[in-house]
Records
---
Amino acid sequence: MEVVILADPAAVGSHTAELVARRAAETPDMVLGIATGSSPLGTYRELARLHAQGDVTFDGVRCFALDEYVGLPERHPASYALVVERELTTPLGLDPANVRTPDGSAADIQQACLDYEHALAASGGVDLQILGIGTNGHIGFNEPTSSLASRTRVKALSQQTRMDNARFFAKGEDVPTHCITQGLGTIMEAREIVLVAQGEAKAAAVAAAIEGPVSSMCPASLLQFHPRTRIVLDEAAASGL
Ligand code: GLP
């Protein structure tokens, strides 16, 4: 695990964007694992800036999102499908046919989970996975107590996560109760991982992930077993180390 501590969120965004841009230049058809939430937004905006300047192209890049809410109305602005479209597909000029999110409105949700695993495997697997971290140490929506070997599946969201994410919805009760998320076992198969975290609110989760025991109580701690993971933090997120 390589830990990079930078002065502020802007530095986290440019450092991580440069890493992604470098990998896209090395492997133009790379499979990029994408996270939603606010943590990687600085990275995505910096990538959009580099793309607008003509410094990087994502024409052949294939993307798989980590997770999606279950049961939101189609094209709900907080659905991760729409967040991905807004923050990545459009500004980075990705081919929409190359961008996938789990299908949270599928009639057969278990089948949708299996289909997602099959699509990931058929792509050849994730070359670079971008992750955020929840205040409770979750990655994707793998909440504390998630099986360390888990695969893409339906999960109930914890009360804390529903509260953390209420800011994206008009009313607290609009936050879905369930989601589809890649499992911890699925995420660990990525060949390279970069986790970004900013702000004091993430300090305790970051410290548990990096310095605590590997435990399902802090799902991100499993990354200690990953051979090629970089954790990019601003000083506030690193303050518990
Ligand atoms: C969200 C997402 C995760 C994200 C994490 C942190 O709910 N499911 O993929 O990394 O929780 O969110 P944020 O970056 O908004 O703090």
---
Amino acid sequence: MEETKYKRVILKLSGEALAGDKGFGIDPVVVDSIAQEIKKIREHNIDVAVVVGGGNIWRGLAGSAKGMDRATADYMGMLATVMNSLALQDALEKFGVDTRVQSAIEMRQMAEVYIRRKAIRHLEKGRVVIFGAGTGNPYFSTDTTAALRAAEIEADVILMAKKNTDGVYDSDPKYNPDAKKFDALEYIEILQRGLAVMDSTATSLCMDNEIPLIVFNIDDHSNILKVALGQNIGTVVGG
Ligand code: UDP
């Protein structure tokens, strides 16, 4: 059997990654293309779990900034992640990849409820598991979900797909032409320097549980397979 660097990965897709040119909503053509890359990872026998965000549809903070109750706005955000999860499942199954959506909030007609042991079992059977509805709790993010689920299912690495950037920089390259890209860095530096990689809850969870993370660019979908196969692209955090 092929020896791959990782045996089990968690792919974190922001909601934005599923949107088309307009930057919002779901573009089935884009979702199909991502699904095909995930299929290629499975062909290397690597276990794949996916955490999808919801920012292409709704972000809790945006609602609360305009006066909504934060928890209610966050539940709406979690629902958005379930829509994205179902879209990705649909595409994966169309390409013959067995997939289960596990939702952290019960919606039995659409998805299984999240049960850790069952998720692991699915992965062992070669199914892709998509974790929907985040952690199931308001005030959290899907980055934190990726960290939590990675710890729970003992993933080797979190592959964090980002649009419009190819890794972590010491300052925003959009505004600073001298911004320097890190090939590798430690979680504590993200916290100390306030780098916009992910929120501090997610960062601490990864740091405390020693979960490596790779930030990579998903504007080119073929990077998904490259990073899963251990190619040196993007920025390695805590590795
Ligand atoms: N969310 C939440 N708890 C979670 C995960 C997500 O309340 O555990 C809500 C939150 O409102 C968030 C929205 O779901 O804004 C969408 O998730 P996120 O912003 O992480 O998506 P992304 O930026 O990755 O697209």
